[in-house]
Amino acid sequence: MKNSSMMLFFTMTVLSVILIINSNNWMSLWMGLEINMMAFISLIAKSKDHLISESMMMYFLVQSMGSVMVLLMIILNNSLMFYSMASTMTMNVLMMGMCIKLGVPPFHSWFPEMMSKLNWIKGLMLMTWQKIAPMFIMASCMSNLLMLFIILSVLAGALGGLNHTSLRKLIAYSSINHMGWMISCLYFNSNLWMMYLTIYTIMMTPLTVWMHYNKIYFMNQASVMTKTLTEKMVLSLNMLSMGGLPPFIGFYPKWMIIQSMMENGSKIIIIIMVMCSLLTLLYYMRMLTSMFMMNNYMNKWMIKNKNNKTMKMMFLINMMLPLGMYMFTF
């Protein structure tokens, strides 16, 4: 695919999300979702292999199902006569459609499979930018199903990746767990989900760029490719921040959500979400333990690496995380 075509489809992906955010009726919102779907499918169709073809077809079927739910919501909203009945049913249908598009449990089985077939850069877009439009639509409506989706997301994200060694699947299940926290923002404090997604994107971008640059897709590859102690420390700081360990900035949005939930008296759900976050932290600790246990036969601090600029960027961002935590807190 030519660079001009890539720029065209990337621009369409960005503009479609802007169209959805600025929509004032359901049909323009549905059009934005369709444009976003077709642009992202064209964007990932760079290489011609069977894995990309499977991921394209999987994404098309899942997103089309979610768009059909949006159309069904529009039809129900116009056909039902009683307003209370129409509002409750249509909001539930719309919420399920957006959960299908986001890969929220119990509609999550496509998300890790598709992540395992994409490269890291396209997977980063799927985990970050492609979540903005469905989350914005979910923020505009409230449903009684939100609490169920919160519990299922944190449980499926925590338990789903325990038996996997593929880093792309582990990151996908961790993203599902983070989705539970973002959905809880909608239920308790609707202004926090944008901040949570922004911080999640800042944490994920250097990690995925480093893994894409070194072609790391499994746990044992991460242990082999981190040759210097500097790389190991930078990678461990990033992963601990993604797991939500204080005092890093990854803990800050979770802390804000916990405070909002405490004010509403949802203590049992807080315990479930925190315990599931500890299980997702186990993913990263399992990889970091094997990485630090490998012996270095010589001091490699002064060795120049080919990805020196990438490591400097990761080191700068990760060193800013504890400082950012204290700046936000005090």
UniProtKB/TrEMBL annotation:
It is found in: Mitochondrion inner membrane. One of its GO terms (molecular function) is NADH dehydrogenase (ubiquinone) activity. It is a multi-pass membrane protein. GO terms for cellular component: mitochondrial inner membrane. InterPro entries: Complex_I_Subunit_2, NADH_UbQ_OxRdtase_chain2, ND/Mrp_TM. It comes from the Eukaryota. It holds the Pfam family Proton_antipo_M. The keyword Ribonucleoprotein does not apply. The keyword DNA damage does not apply. The chain crosses the membrane at residues 7-23, 57-76, 145-163, 195-213, 234-253, 268-289, 310-328. Its main location: mitochondrion. It catalyses: a ubiquinone + NADH + 5 H(+)(in) = a ubiquinol + NAD(+) + 4 H(+)(out). Keywords: Electron transport, Membrane, Mitochondrion, Mitochondrion inner membrane, NAD, Respiratory chain, Translocase, Transmembrane, Transmembrane helix, Transport, Ubiquinone. It is an enzyme of class 7 (translocase). Residues 23-280 form the NADH:quinone oxidoreductase/Mrp antiporter transmembrane domain. GO terms for biological process: mitochondrial electron transport, NADH to ubiquinone. Its EC number is 7.1.1.2. PANTHER family: NADH-UBIQUINONE OXIDOREDUCTASE CHAIN 2. Core subunit of the mitochondrial membrane respiratory chain NADH dehydrogenase (Complex I) that is believed to belong to the minimal assembly required for catalysis. Complex I functions in the transfer of electrons from NADH to the respiratory chain. The immediate electron acceptor for the enzyme is believed to be ubiquinone. Belongs to the complex I subunit 2 family. This is NADH-ubiquinone oxidoreductase chain 2. It comes from Gorpis humeralis.
